[in-house]
Amino acid sequence: MKKATYHIEKDFKISEVDRRLYSSFIEHLGRAVYTGIYEKDHETADEQGFRRDVIELVKELNIALVRYPGGNFVSGYNWTDGIGPVENRPRRLDLAWRSIETNEIGIDEFVDWAKKANTQVMLAVNLGTGTPQEAGYLVEYCNHPSGTYWSDMRIKNGHKEPHGIKVWCLGNEMDGPWQICHLEAHEYGRKALEAAKIMKWVDPTIELVACGSSSSNMPTFPEWDRIVLEHLYDHVDYISLHRYYQNYGDDVDFLASFVDMDMFIKTICATADYVKALKRSKKTMMLSFDEWNIWYQTNVKLKEWEIAPEILEDRYSLLDALAFSGLACTLLNNADRVKIACLAQLVNVIAPILTQKGGGVIRQTIYYPFRDVSTYGRGIALKPVIKAPVIETKSYGEVPTICSAVTYDEESGFITVFALNIDSEPVEVNFDVRSFGKVELKEHIVLDGDDLNAINTFEDPYRVCPRKERVKEGMYDTFDIILPKLSWNVIRMKNVM
Ligand code: AHR
What we know:
The protein is α/β, with parallel strands linked by helices. Helix content is 24%, strand content 27%. Helix 3 packs across helix 4, helix 6 packs parallel to helix 8 (257-278) and helix 9 packs parallel to helix 10. Alpha-L-arabinofuranose is lined by residues 27, 70-72, 172-173, 214, 291, 344-345.
């Protein structure tokens, strides 16, 4: 059997894990909102028309923030269309997704939904067709207590208390030519700077995210990020990154997507640190990886002017979930710089949760690794030292067959190892945890299976779901565990001395 060694050193700290690393995203796109989180005639609908069955599955994911309302949608969105009496709200053409937007759900309803789902809103402003002034009005509407035009309008619309939205995105993917009113880097830098000033004048307690590169494949990456940060460095708290991966036919390459994600993060950090030096700044720019997932972008087929069209409803296989889990580990391993990360998206649209209109709801395969990290990936991210076999990949050369992250929750004493084995053979790993004294092995959760193409369906919703491996009871300072071939593993142990 192949072998690996794995040292966990208590003092090799990367950083405290920010809870917001487990955030997600709901866009007015396809069936994310309408027949996703909201379906007023559904048998589980609450008094506001929100599907309770969906809320239950969202809650299980422990999501800190939900980015809203887009995405590409936001660059053509007039937020005032979504407030006030629903019967007065206009129907609009959504040019981003060639759909019809009814505006039944707007910011007030979404904030209500987020509360019900135990999460908070991260709000994006329109810097495509929108102006800095409209962005400032939105901050006033949401966060100003009362006594002004927009704050009193919120109160009139039924929300006496301010929404208190803390994190705001200065537009979306403005580097992309597909974006409504796309801008060049220096144009975006100027416009976002003026919006940032207004927004922070309205509410100085908010945090702002500047649009960074929408992919590491963009020809403008990383120049876009440098130029944007040269304009915005002193005015924003985060620079965003977006990245989606798909299987182009080479499974091993696909499973090694985490290598690309790691390089992307490191390059953005280097770019931001260059600007820090240039500006003689004391501030270190943090990263908001506010769109990441597996997405088969080459399959996208838009429909013409439908309400809530069935688009971007990728069905995820076990293989997709494995590639996904490597990305989740990579975010944790960069927890010193990545403070926010949004799984894009949450319901129906490239999502872990899939609904049927008028029917049920299921967990897709990627639901499980996300739930694992968001539930157990708490406390401090540690840097493990791993010696593992390597595998040759086309895109990245030699890659270790084990991609892993470790967290230590000092409060509960739990140490959690997350490990993806991309080898088509099992690997026996010798763990060395002597820096903790002794640990008690608690559980070993495994996601694997014989059919990498297996998916969960409404007929067979648990076709792909985690199982428990038996663990050897006792207290150890070293121990061996086998990571099955092509598997995602969560190994939980408790520090006992
Ligand atoms: O998440 C789907 C789309 O991907 C978003 O609208 C856009 O920001 C990105 O290109």
